[in-house]
């Protein structure tokens, strides 16, 4: 899936940067849990690629994109090697990593929603698949690591909500043929901005009233 | 999938009622675990639709039915709003909800098995897909909420067993062209009845001998 | 998927032996957790067939092979009956079962990788699908039983690593048309041997450096 009007090389660089950062978050969690190399590689792969693979399986677009271009699998393997070499050192750069993670979140929800619309899905399922593309890998990561998914926890800062807002913007723009390089970049920037502000000001999502 | 001879409007009403009740059970569990709105919506969606989506992915019928008709996704979002508004109030109607849940169980196992047979599967895999349609969403719900799946626990009342009996009845009726509106209704009523009796008299499934 | 030059009857016997042993490991874990018959049957099925089903869904080869030949589902149901009848007695034969499990691991990683290559996948995704075929069922088993996947734990003996080595051997042999009955048997024997040695000498995989 390429976004309309976006330079393919730039999109690929951003895409792989998102995959790397997601992979690092999976590998780091595995190292913190003292998993061995198998657990580190497994969490790196599912965190980086699980969301997009789930989207593609649900769309019936198999084998998933992550299996057709080998680079997508090599990047999590690089993350595995980095974390094996020194996961404590990587923890010191956890703040910049969170910023790149926000970029991955923003990019993946826009690309995922656009791909689902391109496959003919309606607005609601397309937006859901966009959110799944962005956050699904993290949910699988946490479930395999036997944690409650981070995005469900009341003390987590907004993560799926900005992705849902971005996906909603895409499904609004799409039927008017208004999703182009400029509007897509604005949506990605807005999702990225909301996520970074949520991190900075500890914005949280509402819970159920008792 | 429409059941033979069943009024499509009635089937749709029953189907969506089942989806709503399953969604409420997911959203309620999320609220009890103090998940935020993201967790509540996620568990509502996977509980309501996870079984049918799993069945459709395994059959290769993608995108799943739940993504082709937007109503299926809107219903769990309504459940999310209801639970956000007051999940304690909903707990007071948990007994009637269990009765509707039994109806969803009965309907989904029959519809799921019939759809699998219609896709050419053999009796055993078709019955398994029928059971997965009925109970799969609850298993995903419990796993994401970090509980042992309720239907595996020795203190749970019969749930998958009535679904398996209903699925077995469908695979017996099907090759004789004997699955029509009347026999399907009888099977649904029988599964529903066994489940309600199991709730009432606390029937439990056997465990392994030590 | 049949391996080149391998007698189909022998391959089928080995394949079903692997399915039975994997099913027993799932059913035994369920019994140890005091799950009821539903949990025992569910873990028997997902452990035995989950890896191959995941591979087939990712390849778009649906319904999965495990649903096209009913024997694949009947074998885990037999394992369920055996464990219900006396899981303590089965524990006494846990050592020979581990040897058969190593054979299943070896066979499934070779067959799974070859099938993925046959579907046109590149070397890295094909090897990953081979490993998933061999170890994916166990990961699902442990996740449903609310355990950390055994293959991620630092105190586990090598399991996914021999499968990865076997898968790598297959992707090296394949493009040279060198995967035949003899080389496939050598790879299976090597994976089996490494796994048995890992069990005997408690070989473990590396973890991340602190």
From TrEMBL, chains A, B, C:
Superkingdom per UniProt: Bacteria
Protein family (similarity comment): Belongs to the UPF0126 family.
User: Record's Gene Ontology CC terms?
Assistant: plasma membrane
Q: Where is the Glycine transporter domain?
A: 13-86, 99-174
The entry's keywords: Cell membrane, Membrane, Transmembrane, Transmembrane helix
Q: What is the lineage of its organism?
A: Bacteria, Bacillati, Actinomycetota, Nitriliruptoria, Euzebyales
What organism is recorded for this protein? Answer: Euzebya pacifica
What stretches pass through the bilayer? 12-30, 37-53, 73-90, 97-117, 123-144, 156-175, 181-201
What main location does UniProt list? membrane
Give the bilayer topology. Answer: Multi-pass membrane protein
The cellular location(s) given in this protein's UniProt record come to: Cell membrane
Q: Which InterPro entries match?
A: Gly_transporter
Protein name per UniProt: Glycine transporter domain-containing protein
